[in-house]
Amino acid sequence: MKKSLMLLLSVIVMLTMLSACSGNTNEKNEPAGDDGEIKGDIVFLTNRTDMIGNVYDEYKKRFEEKYPGVNLEFEAILDYDATLKVRMSSGDFPDVVFLPTLSNAEFPEYFAPLNDIEFSGDIYFKELRAHEGQMYGISSGGSTVGIVYNKEAFAKAGITDVPKTYEEFLAACEKLKQSGIVPLASNFKDKWPLDVWVHDIPSLIGEASDHQNKRADTDTPYTMDNEYGKTWSIVRELYEKGYLEPDINSTNWEQSKKDIATGKFGMYLLGNWVINQVIENGADPDNVGFFPFPADNSGQAKAPLNPDFFYAVNKNGNVPAAKAFIHWMIEESGYDEFAGFIPTLKDREPKLAQLAEFNSYDVKYFEPAQPSDVAIDIQNAAQLDQAATVQEFVLSDDPAAVLEKVNGRWAKARSDLGIKE
Fold first, then answer.
1. Which phi and psi angles does 150 have, rounded to 5°?
2. For residue 62, is pLDDT > 70?
3. In a domain, 105, yes or no
4. 50-63: burial string, b at 16+ Cβ within 10 Å, e else
5. Which of 65, 288, 300, 412 fits a 20 to 30 Å CA distance from 131?
6. Whole-angstrom Cα distance, residue 275 to residue 339?
7. Are 117 and 323 in contact (CB under 8 A)?
8. Within 10 A of 267 (CB to CB), how many other CB atoms are there?
9. CA distance linking residue 83 with residue 98, whole number of Å
10. CB–CB of 250/408 below 8 Å?
11. Which domain holds residue 81?
12. pLDDT digits (tens, 9 = 90+) for 280-321
């Protein structure tokens, strides 16, 4: 009996040791399935419709060469956030997605933790999409926001120095306008480009990146004299002075990239990720510049440091292969260079030349604050589309009334959720 017991214990110990060893056989610590293999079908749902049929085809080929047991497919959609949420509510959505606007506390309901993906170095933003010590999102890259400009358009307008103050920026816009060049492409109709006026410029105006969280503390988060009213008044001024597209209700995102590339338009206020897209639309790389947006007259260059979309894994999907795909996208795909991102891996230098110009202005960066679940819950309950609010604010005869209306919805949502001052 003792011999049998000892034999059984020996077998258990040996199996335990073999199991422990097998967990370290993956090259580069890549995630694997229970049998040590990455295999099966996976689908990545992306917003990059422009990469379907070209770049993604190359990624599919390279990834499947590394993991011959995997069939990787890409699906691209517009109106990404809303469409994904509808599919998530049905319980059927792809293996790899970009995280939608949910509170961090909701992530475990849909997504698998990603802490076990071991990268070659430390990564940016790993705490931003985490809950109770588990990471549910990994940033696809980093970016800052500033003025992407056509240098030839500036030269034609007689602009010899990039503006360092808001007054100088308005003067540059006037020179561009007088030269027959549309000063700033707002892409007003497409709405999503207005997010920079919701998240980024308020950080510069208020010199703090947690303004979206602080909305949860009040029934009146939007006022004419706070970071939102001041920021949206800038857009309104640019519109009223004729510095945006001639018809802001019929702007076209894809065409705007061509117009910046040719110098028909002078500037974008967007992230560095758009620079390569302008170059792809015909601009000489040496003719595209990038400087911090002067949101005030202080003369201090300021900018946000932002994550781009966060990869996430459907917890009911092909989790091992999905994690391997995210690891590959960060480490090997070259997507950060293609997209003009600041790499997710902190020890990698960005290869975009325009970022060197941007940093030469001694920029004060504002890193993001972890989102407040309470603020997101209130925003969702209020069904508040902040970019749409910017549109209404700019076009309204009474912008203060627009803020008053939005504050009313916000206050009601706070009350309905039982949130007190």
1. -90, 115
2. yes
3. yes
4. ebeeebbeebbeeb
5. 412
6. 8
7. yes
8. 27
9. 12
10. no
11. 2-141+310-350
12. 999 999 999 999 999 999 999 999 999 999 999 999 999 999
